[in-house]
Amino acid sequence: MSDGRFHSGQEMAKEFKVSRATVFNILQMAEELDVRIHAVRGKGYKLATPLSWLDTQALESFMSDSGFGYAIKAVEQTYSTNTSLTEAALEGAPHRTVLYADYQHAGRGRRGRTWLSPLGGGLTFSVLWRFDRGLDQLSGLSIVVGMALARALAKLCPLPVKVKWPNDVLAGYRKLAGILVEVQGEISGPSFAVIGIGINEHLSKFHRQEIDQAVIDLAEMGVQITRAELLNGILSELALTMETFEQDGLKNILADWPNWHAHEERLVVLRTPDGSSHTGKASGLDVAGNLLLTSPNGEIRKFSTGEVSLRPVARK
Ligand code: ATP
Asked: 52-95: per-residue pLDDT in tens?
C-alpha cells in the first residue's frame, strides 16, 4: 500500500497467498499500531498518509562508500532503541553500532518524557559511541550531537534549521527532531554514549495533537528523501562532528553556536525540575557547554544541560 493507491482485499489476498480474512486481520493490527487506513466499498483500502521504510541494502552500500565504519543493525520493532542499544553496549557491542527500528513502542525523551514516532511517520535510531576518555570529558556532548543533526538537516530543509539548547532541532522554530544522549562508564575512562535520534517525516494531524509543543515534519516542508539517504546524511555528519569533538573538544562547536542557536540573544525562560523558572537573555555557552543566561539585573548565571527546559518568552 506504500504507493498510496487503493488496493482491494481480494488483490492483497492473492498477492500474499493468504485468505481475505487474514488480510482484514492484518489491516486491523496496523490500525492498532496507529496506521490510519481508509476503507471504501468497491475500491478497497488505502493508507491515509504515506509510510516510509528503510532500504537497508541501499544504506549498507552508502555506508561502505563513505567508510565511516558504522555497523548497522535494523529491526522491525523495539521498546526504545536507546534501551536496546545500551543493553547491547553492556554486552560488548562495538563502537559505532547503529540500531535502527521501524517502530518503537516506547520511544523516550529526556526526564522520562516520551518521543512520539508513529509507524512509518518518523525515523528513529540510536548510535553507540565509545570513548577512551571518561565521563568527566564528555560535558557538552549533547550539544555536539544537536549541532551535527542540525547541520545535516539544514542541507535538506527550505526553512531555517536551528538548535534549541541543548539539542532539540527546530525548523521554522518548530520541533523537527529530538535527541536523547545517555552516557555510562568510568569518571576517568573508558566510557560510552548511546545517542538516540528521532526525526519527524510525516506526522498526521491526529499525532500532532498529542504533542504539547509546535512540531513540523519533512513532508510539510516538501523534503523528498529516502530513509537510507536521510540516515546516511545524518550518520556522516555525526561522524565528522564527533571526530572533531574527540580531537579538539568543544572549540569548533562553541565558535559556531551563535549562528545555530534558535534563541541566541533572545529572552528565554529556563524551567528546572524543582518547578522554579529563570528568565533572562540567552548569552552563549561557557567552555563546558553550559548555557549562560543574563538576568534583567545583568547577573550571568550558568545552567547545565541535564535537567533544564528552555522556552522562548513570547514577544508581545
Ligand atoms: P524540551 O523541549 O523541554 O527541552 P526535552 O528536551 O525534554 O524537552 P525531548 O526529550 O527531546 O524533549 O522530547 C520529549 C518532548 O518532545 C515531549 O515531551 C514532547 O513535548 C515533544 N515531542 C514528543 N514527540 C515529538 C515529536 N514526534 N515531534 C516533536 N516533538 C515531540
From this structure: 789 999 999 998 888 899 999 999 999 999 999 999 999 999 99
Catalytic residues: 110, 175, 311
Separation of alpha carbons 309 and 170, rounded Å: 15
What confidence tens digit (pLDDT) does each residue in 98-114 have?
Answer: 999 999 988 888 777 88
Torsion 25-26-27-29 (CA) sign: positive
Q: Is 229 exposed, middle or buried (0-12, 13-18, 19+ CB in 10 A)?
A: middle
Chain Cα centroid distance, residue 101? 12
CA of 12 to the centre of ligand 1 (A): 38
Domains of the chain in sequence order: 9-47 (no CATH), 56-259 (3.30.930.10), 263-312 (2.30.30.100)
The helix/strand count (H/E) of the chain reads as 8, 14
Question: In this structure, which residue's CA is closest to atom 4 in ligand 1?
Answer: 309
